[in-house]
Design goal:
The protein folds into 2 domains: 1-39, no CATH class; 46-116, no CATH class. The longest helix is centred in the last third of the chain and has 14 residues, at 102-115. The N and C termini lie close together (6 Å). Helix 4 (66-76) crosses helix 5. The protein has helices at residues 39-42, 49-55, 58-62, 66-76, 88-96, 102-115, and strands at residues 5-8, 36-38, 46-48, 80-82. By secondary structure, it is α+β, with helices and mostly antiparallel strands. The strands form 2 sheets. The protein has a two-stranded antiparallel ribbon with strand order 1-2. It binds zinc ion (ZN).
């Protein structure tokens, strides 16, 4: 999610400069001098659906039941997918791909990258 900025910082109003200062050398501490927040800063467990698609092991995908494939296709159609604990998307994906699967390992890597901004 790095670089995907969408909400103006409420402390510096998007100027990226600390309130009361006039120089870029005094960056806003709330947004880190960026002027806005990224998806990952606001919702650290949200990933792009294309990342989930790339995380799929094709052999594991092919082995899914038709019902699981249909559920997976709905998840991929979301665009952004929230993989926070307890979400339907995460529960479904974790049920489809066990902890020893290549897809689960790839999804955990994807999630860790999102959480690290
Ligand atoms: Zn700011």
């Amino acid at each position: 999610m790095r670089g995907f900025f969408f909400r103006k910082c409420d402390r510096c109003s998007g100027t990226s400069i600390a309130p009361g200062h006039e120089s870029p050398e005094d960056p806003c501490t709330q947004c880190g001098g960026v002027g806005s927040y990224s998806v990952s800063q606001l919702e650290p467990d949200i990933v792009f659906a294309c990342g989930i698609s790339d995380a799929l092991d094709i052999g594991e995908y092919n082995a899914l039941s038709d019902g699981n494939k249909a559920a997976l296709h709905i998840i991929l159609s979301l665009g952004f997918v929230n993989l926070a604990e307890g979400t339907n998307s995460k529960l479904a994906l974790w049920a489809m791909f066990d902890e020893n699967s290549t897809t689960r390992v790839n999804l955990l890597t994807l999630l860790a990258e999102a959480q690290n901004g």
